TrEMBL record:
Keyword Transferase listed: yes
Domain GST N-terminal stretches: 3-84
Similarity field: Belongs to the GST superfamily. Phi family.
Residues in the signal sequence: none
Organism: Eleusine coracana subsp. coracana
Pfam families: GST_C, GST_N
Protein name per the record: glutathione transferase
Length: 225
């Protein structure tokens, strides 16, 4: 039984959502300390300010503090291998190597353009004095379309990115993909226009772990002004 697991942040944050999904997949008990970092007046705990000025996600396990959401997910899978979904980080060196390739591809190539689209399509329309930037939207749409084209080819052979089991490779894509798909018909078409990508997203977004995160986001949407 895991003890003393704490997550600091808002469920609405994509980084926090990634960590929460992993915790639910692993059936680990944890405490969520909501820090509304979007409000400049909010005072963050000192250990968060020292390690992560944005405060988007901070994880504590005893004396251990981690701020990168993907590193937190790796930590949870490595330190609690027998809890919950045992296949989340692979069952051997070869499986883990494949998952790592996808995690790195997501972090290095998918995250930046998808994060831009999350802001421009999902958040900007609801912010005061912010107008969505059409140039940035088109530029990042092209990048995502190229990547999803590669994904579609892979997913024509595998049920999930790293094989036939749901892993961190798929989980890591969920938060940004969710915001883009639910932002507008324009965002949705990026995923639904590709048959295998559409089927893959439907499968991963219907997992109980992600549904629990969505419920938390609706109950505590956070403040983006």
């Amino acid at each position: 039984m895991a003890a003393g697991l704490q997550v600091f942040g808002q469920p609405a944050s994509t980084d926090v959502a990634r960590v929460l999904t992993c915790l639910f997949e692993k059936n680990l008990e944890f405490e969520l300390v909501r820090t509304d970092t979007f409000k400049k007046s909010h005072k963050l705990p000192e250990f968060i300010k020292l390690r992560d000025p944005t405060g988007q996600v901070t994880f504590k396990h005893g004396d251990k503090t981690i701020v990168d959401s993907r590193a937190i997910c790796r930590y949870l899978c490595t330190n609690f291998p027998e809890d919950g979904n045992r296949k989340l980080y692979g069952m051997g060196a070869l499986e883990r190597a494949s998952i790592e390739q996808w995690l790195q591809a997501e972090a290095q190539s998918f995250d930046a353009p998808s994060s831009q689209l999350v802001f421009q399509l999902a958040f900007a329309p609801h912010l005061k004095d912010v107008i969505p930037d059409e140039r940035k939207i088109e530029e990042n749409e092209k990048k995502i379309q190229t990547m999803l084209g590669v994904y579609d080819e892979i997913l024509s052979k595998n049920k999930f990115l790293a094989g036939d089991e749901f892993t961190l490779a798929d989980l890591s894509h969920l938060p940004n993909s969710h915001y883009i798909i639910n932002s507008s018909e324009r965002g949705r078409k990026l995923f639904t226009s590709k048959k295998h990508v559409a089927k893959w997203y439907e499968a991963i977004s219907n997992r109980d772990s992600w549904k629990q995160v969505i419920k938390m986001q609706r109950e505590h949407p956070g403040t983006f002004e």
